[in-house]
Each structure stands twice: as C-alpha cells, then as structure tokens.
Write a structure and sequence with these properties.
The protein is mostly beta strands. The protein has a single domain, classed as Neuraminidase (6 Propeller), CATH 2.120.10.10. The chain has one helix and 30 strands. It has a four-stranded antiparallel β-sheet, with no helix packed on it. Strands 2-3-4-5 form a four-stranded antiparallel β-sheet, with no helix packed on it. A four-stranded antiparallel β-sheet has the order 6-7-8-9, with no helix packed on it. Strand 2 (39-45) and strand 3 form a beta hairpin.
Length: 452
C-alpha cells in the first residue's frame, strides 16, 4: 500500500503542475446551429473595423459578429446556382472591409481517397459580402470548375482564400486562392488571383514544381496556406510527403519562384498506428505567417517525439533558411499526450505569434480533449500556454474535420474549432440512415491588449 501511495503522489503533482491558466479576456461562444454536424471552420476579422468578425463552417454556414466576436448572428448564404451547399470553406477580409468566402462544391466523390478516379462535376467558387458577412451576393465567382463531361476531368480540393490588406502594398485589395488539384497520376497545387475585388479570378497557374502522389494519403500534396507581407510579397506553403514546401511571388501572384522543400517533418496524416485515439482523421499540415518586419513563421504538428506535438520554425531571410524547430506545447516531453490540429496566426500589428491546438495533456488516458492557445511575444523564441476550454470533450471515431482556424489583430486573438456536441447527440451524415456523433463549431477570443 505504501509503495502505491509513493508512486501516485508524484504523478498527481505532475498533473497539477500542468494546469494551465485561462488567456486574458477569454470568451467562448457556439456559432453553429443545433442539429447540424458542423466542422472545418474558418474565421476572419475586418482590419478596418475589428468589431466585425465572420466565422464560416461546413456545411457552408456563416455567422457574423458586430461586437468583436462576443456574440454572433447566423447569416443566410445563397447557394451557388446549380450546386449543392458546399464545404472546405475559408474566409477573408480585404483592405476595403469586404468579405470573401471560398468553398468547394461537387456532385460526388471519385473512388475513396483517389478523388480523380471516377470524379464527377466539381468546382471552387468565391462569394462576397459588402456588409461584414450579414448579407451575401447571389452571384459567385468561379475559380475553377468541371461540368462532369470533360474528357480529362480533375478533382479540385481544399481551397484557401486570403487577401492583401497591407496599406503600402502595390497589390493591396487583391484576393488570392490556392488549392490542390488531384489528377489520375499526380497531385499539384494551383493558384488564382482576383484584381477586381473578387468579381473574377485569373486562369489558374501551377505553383508546385514537384508533383505529389495522386491519392489523398501521405505522399500527396496537401494543405496550401498563403500570407502577404507589407510589400505585397506572397509566401505560400504546403505539405509534400514528409517536407514543408515553400514558394513566393513578388508580382502579385502573376508568377512564383520554383517551390522547394524547406522543413523536414513527419508525414502529415496521422492514421493507423500513428492515429489519435477517438478521432477518425487527423492532419498536421502547416500554416505560415509574417510579422511587420518580414519575419516568417511556419507551424505544424507531427509525431517525431512519439506522441503528437506542435512545432514552429522561423525565417529572417524571406524563406531562404529556417530555424531549428521549437516545440510549442509546454507539457512534459514523451508524456504520451497528443497535441494536434494546430493553426497559427501572426498579429500584423503587434507581431505576436499565436498557435491554437487540441490538447490532451490533462488526461493520462490521452482521450479527453481541450483547446490550448499558445502565444509568443518575443518573436517565436518562447511560448506561454493557456487553457482556452470550458470543458473537455471526447469521442468515438469523432470527425473533427481537417482543420481549425485562428486569426489575430491588435493583440486580440480569434480562434474557431470543432468539438463534440455537448449533449452527445448524433447528427445526420449524408442521409437520415447514416448517423455520426454530433459536432459543434465554437469561437474563442482572448484579449492581450493590456498584457505587458
């Protein structure tokens, strides 16, 4: 008995030491409607009026805020004419305060994980709101679409929209989109730009010098994310096998430098033995951010330490060289707790680096999940971790989607993520006969404006 007590006390002390404080000004709100299995969210704040915040999620839903994300109101999003609801959503504001929502629409998938094989009609579209997300224009801009009868139909996937909001940029106001195209024999990254406030987009160009494998598994190209610096330079990254690949454009997206691998990582899909218990699918693909001085940051997650951890690397020479990876989560190394589905944002005003992620450090069984916000005010050299959750959640093969999202402005941080429905309810999947554990989308805010 005495031996059991001696073994138990140090473990309890370690758990107590891992308790995290809440971030300053923490506030949480659920933005998805009840009964909808919502996931794969995105969030954006208006740099012209930070009281305006828009959160979007799959299946294509919108909620807007006029009080800095304290409360949200659902918005009616008109369907893209001739297409079903849509998913893989992302959202951004431009320098005029207009909102742009990118989404993927399709009639049917191709073969499981081999999307271009037997692919049907599919396309990527961008819709616009001129009033902070309250109302949306009926007409959508087509970025790329297939009608389904083309002799060489491809499959477009995971579009990401972002915009140039930098006041001194020669390309301020441009709206950009990057995504994956799955072909029968390869996967590539495509890019298109709009110079007319999102009304039309240029013909897509390929920006991946190296092609990935043609399946939605490890080895394919996945996870495009782009960012713009104060000079209007576009920096973009994605996963290519076990590397983070990088490219840049100095002419507003007309052309890009040949892409190249810059950071070695573990495979971005965590499945099989590398899976996260209770979650059906997890990815660790990267995000990129840039501060006002041009310092670049890339964040990702992988299992080089056995359990899944979150990492960050920085570049002070426009992506030519990158620092040694720094572990963002501050729990004990090799403790068997997973941190996963990270998303990073760099505050364009303060330069602070924030990363959110799902976190299981408080559960020795590695099942109960919370959300952690990590923040660095010293240029990414060290991070403080904060507990952003009001309750833990867990699931049985829970589908959380493929990503969360985070943005920051003027020392305020705005995150959005998916959780298991708190009442344990189930929601339809495709039809009423197929049901899956319910999920909700939540927005978290934190206010570091008074923190020195």
């Amino acid at each position: 008995m005495m031996r059991a007590i001696l073994l138990f006390v140090p473990f309890a002390v370690r758990l107590a030491a891992q308790a995290l404080p809440a971030p300053p000004g923490a506030h949480l709100v659920t933005v998805s409607p009840r009964g909808v299995r919502a996931n794969e969210p995105s969030i954006a704040v208006n740099p012209r009026d930070p009281r305006q915040v828009v959160a979007v999620f799959q299946p294509a839903g919108v909620a807007y805020s006029t009080d800095g994300a304290q409360t949200f109101t659902p918005a009616e999003l008109p369907q893209v004419p001739g297409w079903r609801g849509g998913g893989d959503v992302s959202v951004t504001f431009n320098d005029k305060g207009h909102v742009f929502l990118g989404s993927l629409h399709f009639d049917r998938l191709g073969t499981a994980s081999y999307w271009a094989h037997g692919a049907g009609r599919n396309g990527i579209f961008v819709r616009r709101s001129l009033d902070g997300g309250k109302t949306w224009e009926k007409d959508a801009a087509t970025v790329k679409a297939f009608e389904g009868n083309e002799p060489e139909i491809q499959w477009e996937d995971m579009p990401r929209v972002f915009a140039d909001t930098r006041p001194g940029s020669p390309f301020a106001g441009h709206v950009y989109a990057g995504w994956i195209e799955w072909q029968l024999d390869k996967s590539i990254i495509l890019f298109a730009r709009s110079t007319d406030d999102g009304r039309t987009f240029s013909a897509p160009i390929r920006i991946s010098a190296h092609a990935g494998l043609p399946r939605d598994d490890n080895g394919g190209l996945v996870g495009f994310v782009g960012v713009v610096d104060s000079k209007g330079t576009i920096f973009a990254i994605w996963n290519d096998g076990s590397t983070v690949t990088f490219t840049r454009s100095t002419d507003g997206g007309k052309t890009f430098a040949p892409s190249r691998p810059v950071i070695d990582v573990a495979p971005p899909y965590f499945g099989g033995a590398g899976g996260v218990p209770g979650v059906s699918r997890v990815m660790g693909f990267p995000q990129i951010g840039v501060d006002a001085h041009g310092k670049l940051f890339v964040a990702w997650s992988d299992y080089r330490n056995g359990d899944v951890d979150v990492f960050i690397s920085a570049s002070t020479d426009s992506g030519t060289s990158w620092s040694k990876p720094l572990r963002v989560n501050t729990d004990e190394l090799h403790n068997g707790a997973d941190q996963f589905f990270q998303w990073m944002a760099v505050d364009p005003v303060s330069g602070a680096v924030s990363v959110q992620f799902y976190d299981r450090r408080a559960d020795p069984q590695n099942r109960k999940t919370r959300v952690t916000l990590a923040r660095s005010a010293d240029g990414g050299r060290s991070f403080l971790n904060y507990d952003w959750s009001d309750a833990s959640f867990e699931g049985q093969q829970l589908f959380l989607g493929d990503y969360t999202w985070l943005t920051a402005f003027e020392n305020r941080v705005y995150g959005v993520w998916t959780e298991a429905a708190p009442d344990g309810s189930e929601a339809p999947r495709n039809d009423e006969k197929q049901r899956r554990q319910g999920t909700v989308v939540r927005v978290g805010t934190a206010d570091f404006s008074q923190v020195k």
